[in-house]
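Service request form, structural biology core

Requester: graduate student, group of Dr. S.
Request type: structure prediction, single chain
Budget code: on file
Notes: please return the result as structure tokens.

Sequence provided:
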Amino acid sequence: MKIFKIFAVAVMAISLTSCVSKKQYDALNLNYKQCVESAGERQRQIQDLQSANAGLTSENNLLKDQNNALKSSLDACLSNTGKSSANIDKLIGEINASNDYIKKLIASNAKNDSLNLALSNKLKRSLDNVTDQDVQVKVLKGVVMISLSDKMLYKSGDYDILPAAQEVLGKVAKVINDYDKYSVLIEGNTDNVALSSANLPKDNWDLSALRATSVAKVLQSKFGVDPARITAGGRSEYNPKTTNMSVSGRAENRRTEIIIMPKLDEFMKLMDIAPVKK
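Core staff response, request fulfilled:
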């Protein structure tokens, strides 16, 4: 009787596995993979939006504090009977002007954050087939930062761009050219392992700077990025992202970063906007 039960279970298992054809299995498996990829993209978008929202919340809190300070000054003025009504009217005018300025600043920041988020998403879609460890894209404090690993760009201790990196830089350049109102800052970084040579690069300062200018020259000469938009420089070992005590940490610190941000003159104009007295 026990043998008969085992045989019956085995027959049932074989019949169940035969219910799904290989074609149906492949279709389900493909659908599953597409769902996983879609979920990953949605998670990245959520993280970007959370980062942008955190920045706006911080700026809004600062502006609220400034507004509260002005209101406190008004309350103090009202409580002081020795102050003339002319001074009160002047202070009210300054508060109204400051409120208008706050509204303009918040609107401008919201617009920039939206543009930066769109730019970031476009870059991520363009670089979707590149290994995450080699290229990282994120929005941080109102700018879009692209971090490129050194092993993808250069040979060890060298600053000449590898042929395999041309495709990635071409995709980055395409997006940079689409957003022609933005400036491009290229920063080279190294680990803290000393480099000493009679020839260039002589040390980590030289290596980081030469790597940054190599990327700048490729973007200009091969992909048509306007050099007037580019600033390139090296930060040597003095801007580490993580510890230099491990092999993986040193590898992460040996990066080149392309930072896309509003042009400096436009940013300074925004900072120079003063509240207009009424």
